[in-house]
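Sharing in case it's useful to others searching the archive later.

Someone asked me privately for the predicted structure of serine C-palmitoyltransferase, so I'm posting the question and my answer publicly. Question first, with the sequence:
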Amino acid sequence: MFRLPNIMFQAYVYLDEAHSIGAIGKTGRGVCELLGVDTSDIDIMMGTFTKSFGSCGGYIAGSKDLIQYLKYTCPAHLYATSISPPSAQQIMSAINVILGEDGSSRGAQKLARIRENSNFFRSQLKKMGFEVLGDNDSPVMPINALQSSKNSCIFTRVPQKKGKFPFFLYFVAVVTVAFPATPLLLARARICLSASHTREDMNKALEVISTVGDLVGIKYFPAEPKKPQLEDDRLKQE
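And my answer, the predicted C-alpha cells:
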C-alpha cells in the first residue's frame, strides 16, 4: 500500500514544471537545474509536453511506488487513451534537440535565445512602469492589474477597438488570468515568449502593451526616463 513519506508534516513536495521544463536551466532541465536542487529531493514532478516539446499530453515523475499507485487509481490514466506514435516521436525528437543529442547546437542556441528574449522583455516592461511578477530567465511574465476595475478583461478588450492603434496590434496575443484563478484583486495579464520571437516582434508588442497600459491605468511605478539620443540631436543641429 502506498503511504505518505515519513517526514514531520506528512506532505509531499510537488513541483509544477508546465512552463519551465525545456525552457530554463543551463541545459533546459527546469527549475531544479536552475536553482541547484537535487531532483531526488522532489517527491512529485509534473510537466507538460505541449509547450517546449510542441506535442500533447504531459508527465508525472516520482518514485516507483508513486507511479504504480497512480497507474491503478488515477482516472486520467485509467480512462484516457495512449499517446499517439507521432506525438511520442515529436516529444523524443524535441528532447534530443534540447539536450544536443541530435548532433547540433540548436538546443543550446534556443535556450540562450529564450533567456535573452525573456530578460529583455521583462526589463522593458519594468522600465515602462508595470509591476511584473516572476524572476529573470522566466519566459512567462504576469503583469499585475491589481484593481478589479482595471482587471485583465479590460486589458484584453481594449485592443479590439479599431482605428486607435497600429495594424500590428491585432497580432499581439495576451493570456489573461482573473478570479477565481487568482484572488479577486490580483487579476493579471500573462505574456509568454519563445526563442522564435525577434527583437522587432518584441518591440512592436511592447509598444502595444505600453499603449494599453496607459489607457487602462496599470502602470503603477514611475517609468524610467529614456536616454537622450546624442547622435540624433547632433544631426538635427547640423
